[in-house]
Amino acid sequence: MKRRSLLLGAAGAAFLAACSDKSDAQSASGSLTLGFSAWPGWFPWQVAQEKGLFTKNNVAVELKYFDSYTDSLNALATGNLTCNSQTLNDTLSSVSGGSKQTIVLLNDNSTGNDQIIAAPGIEKVADLKGKKVAAEQGTVDHYLLLLALEKAGLTEKDVTFTPLLTDAAAAAFVAGQVDAVGVFAPFTTTALGRAGSKAVATSKDFPGAIPDTLSFQSQYVADHPDQVQAVVQTWFDTVAWIKANPAEAVSIMAKKGGVSDADYKTYDAGTTIFTKEQNLAAFESGTDATHLDFQAKKIAEFLVSTKLVETAPPLGGLFEPKFVKAVR
Q1: Tell me, what CATH number does 294's domain have?
Q2: Is residue 1 part of a domain?
Q3: Is 97 found in the same domain as 222?
Q4: Which of 57, 79, 150, 268 is the most buried (most CB within 10 A)?
Q5: pTM of the predicted model, to two decimals?
Q6: Reading across the β-sheet that carries 198-202, which strands appear in turn?
Q7: Domain range holding 180?
Q8: How far, in Å, are 83, 182, 273 from residue 128 at the CA level?
Q9: Quick check: 46 and 85 in contact, CB under 8 A?
Q10: Quick one: 103 and 194 in the same domain?
Q11: 270-320: per-residue pLDDT in tens?
């Protein structure tokens, strides 16, 4: 499974014109396809489907699960999805490449479930100098690695970066083929299976750096606000259902994630699901990491400076809080 790629921009833009007819047809019909992939903050969509919460809110949703997160990004950018669960980072990358997207919901912040895990003898990020480090190139865990190196006074040139798919990177680390690895839950569980290994940096160290959101095709938001509202309402209904039925919810989400209920529970602290009040605060303009517009500017600067995108994405109209405001 892949999650959280930052490299979509140019590739996604190349397909936009070719797929515009499909996107227009989808908007005209009002049909709604929602994509998600492997991340604890997005598995609640599976609960929503299995417990009939979309139907309760009178919205017909085709839920599409992607083993490859990158494929879900491409699907939204090319008009093959109405909306997708993706990081703010990846939305910015897509928008930079020409995709027209609107963020209507903040699902969660990563608060520890993205990790840089190192072999025994490596006590801190600075100790990675000269070491072999694996991560999926362009993913948010690559981004986390760069942030951690920067904080330690290093750059990617100070390590031997080994680009591998996330599952392969975790396996290579366990096999002793690399000295450290950047991975996300549930692959953190795999990587920590190496005796004596530990996380030397996590997303908890960079508050607000990795927001996870629901991004719609902008035209669909303009044409079908009632359906968008119903999806956002369903999210908060689902969060309430999970709180009232924790054991059953964990079983549903763990099964979808391919892990045990016990392992899934360990991810709880590392993914902070946002309440309506936290959403509203995040959508407000601000000057610190708790605000989406501040974080978007910071991420955009980082993406350009590291050449992960060629041009800074336009931020005007990217965030639309009216749907969260209208939640009952």
Answers
A1: 3.40.190.10
A2: no
A3: yes
A4: 79
A5: 0.84
A6: 160-163, 132-135, 180-184, 114-118, 198-202
A7: 114-205
A8: 38, 12, 32
A9: no
A10: no
A11: 999 999 999 999 999 999 988 999 999 988 988 888 787 888 999 999 999
